[in-house]
Amino acid sequence: MTDLFSKKIAGIAPYTAGEQPSDRSYVKLNTNENPYPPSPKALEAYRSFDFGSLRLYPSLDMRALKEAIAKAEGVSPENVFCGNGSDEVLSFCFPAFFDPEEPVRFPAVTYSFYRVYAKLFGIPYEEVPMLPGFAVDVQGMTAGRGGAILPNPNAPTSLELPLAVIEDMARAQREKGRVLVVDEAYVAFGQEPSAATLVPRYDNLLVTRTLSKDHALAGLRVGYALGQRGLIEGLLRVKDSFNSYPVDSLAIAAAAAALQDEDYFRLRRDQVVRTRDFFRQGLLERGFAVLPSSANFVFARPGFCPGRELFAALRRRNVLVRRWDAPGIEEYLRISIGTQEEME
Ligand code: PMP
Predict the structure, then answer these.
(1) Tens digits of per-residue pLDDT, 268-327?
(2) β-bridge pairing 125-128 and 104-107
(3) Given this model, what pLDDT does residue 1 score?
(4) Ligand 1 center to 86 CA (angstroms)
(5) 207 C-alpha vs ligand 1 centroid, how far in Å?
(6) Cα separation of 220 and 120, whole Å?
(7) How far apart, in whole angstroms, are the C-alpha atoms of residue 95 and residue 19?
(8) What's the whole-model pTM score?
(9) Which of 3, 57, 117, 283 could form a disulfide with 288 if both were Cys (CB 3.0 to 4.6 A apart)?
(10) Residues within a 6 A CB radius of ligand 1
(11) Are 323 and 333 a contacting pair, CB within 8 Å?
């Protein structure tokens, strides 16, 4: 069978997402989903959607969605690019901004999809070793000739870099005329402001976001990027060489409505943050080592048994968390924050 694959696909190890089982009900703390339902305004947008309009392709410029994002972010719609989840937006960054002659850099412990995208698009990469305590080596990130990409807060470590440090990286990348992509999937749960505030000053800075976590819309598949017009144009070129309509009409309507409901967003975010801090404290008291979290998950190492054993024991009790057999993190579990009741 595989001899029919292209050489590239035959040689690729795809990203493995956390399981989405439907056989029974689990306490599902393995994919950083939001434990609460999305905004009722998103549901209302679905209910009042003109179903007959589905015979038409979606809006080419996704105007309603871009306007809602622009308003929420204080930018202009032309600084916004939307995609089918931020994974799609991140994947487009590789052919848009990185070249085979110059390795792209990302932290050694980070979102493992970057490695897969680099391989898929034939971009060499350098994994920048972590400093003690899983800190990102900021100088190392910008020491190469090529582009750089990192999540802030980082995943799966949950650690956040200050905005001033992100700005230093953007500046260092601009001096060589290369792009910095900051993946802000978890930014809403941290203390630092978004790097979107730097976009007007750095033409080489692209910030990506998702509605999957902080807006509880993982199933809708909507993500976006914020950047100056040049970078947005780069992403549009990739999109229009791939799929003219990555976000469907229903998703455009529901996502726009959810983004307008800022009170609901804050309410749910604050609930998750409170539960996270409660849960982290509880783990510390029980002998875990837990990194300080700026995300909707914690990265924790049990002091009393191997990570692998705790992972299996939890699964037997219908609690799903995430763990990787990767060097340096094999003793850790990444535990998404559920409802207060689930975490208790
Ligand atoms: N970036 C990071 C760091 C993530 O953990 C995730 C979620 N797996 C994503 C991006 C992608 O999220 P989505 O495609 O749902 O927007």
Answers:
(1) 999 999 999 999 999 999 999 999 999 999 999 998 999 999 999 999 999 999 999 999
(2) parallel
(3) 59
(4) 6
(5) 13
(6) 25
(7) 28
(8) 0.97
(9) 283
(10) 85-87, 111, 151, 155, 183, 185, 210, 212, 218, 223
(11) yes
Return the ligand 1 atom nearest residue 88 CA.
Answer: 14
Residue 202: the pLDDT is 98
Residue 16, pLDDT score: 87
Q: What share of the chain is helix, strand, coil (3-state, %, to 5)?
A: 40, 15, 45
Neighbours of 324 (CB within 10 A): 16
Q: Quote the CA–CA distance of 191 and 209 in Å, as a whole number.
A: 16
Q: Cis ω on the peptide bond leading into residue 129 (within 30° of 0)?
A: no
7, burial (CB in 10 Å: exposed 0-12, middle 13-18, buried 19+): exposed
What's the rounded Cα separation, in Å, for the pair 314 and 308?
10
How many whole angstroms separate alpha carbon 330 and alpha carbon 323?
7
First to last CA, the chain: 48
8-state DSSP, 329: T
CA of 1 to the centre of ligand 1 (A): 31
Q: Treating both helix axes as pointing N-terminal to C-terminal, what angle do 85-97 and 229-239 enclose, rounded to 10 degrees?
A: 100
Q: Exposure string (b/e) for 58-87, b if CB count within 10 Å is 16 or more? A: beeebebbbbbbbeebebebebbbbbbbbb
Axis-axis angle for helices 113-120, 85-97 (nearest 10): 40
What is the residue-averaged pLDDT of the chain? 96
Choose among 245, 246, 235, 251: nearest CA to 91. Answer: 235
User: Which sign does the torsion angle of CA 224, 225, 228, 233 carry?
Assistant: negative
| Closest residue by CA, ligand 1 atom 4 | 185
